[in-house]
Amino acid sequence: MVHAFIMVKTAAGKSEGLLSEIRSLEPVGNAHIVAGNYDIITEVDTGEVYDVLDVASSKIQGLDGVSDTKTYIAMD
């Protein structure tokens, strides 16, 4: 099992709308609006590292209003 955090930067005023879209994606477990350099933090659990990359690059980055993502793979 691969556990990862995907940080999402959004366009101004888009965070709340994107939050519900991101939460509906498979295999997203949790997603929250946060304060800081990124606007949304997303937790995913997948079977393979490739699946995490697919969620970040294809599913989340493909949403209208997403301007950047950064992915962190949990090592424990």
TrEMBL record:
Instruction: Give start-end of the signal peptide.
Output: none
Transcription regulator AsnC/Lrp ligand binding domain segment(s): 6-75
What InterPro entries has UniProt attached to this entry? Dimeric_a/b-barrel, Tscrpt_reg_AsnC/Lrp_C
Output this protein's name.
Lrp/AsnC ligand binding domain-containing protein
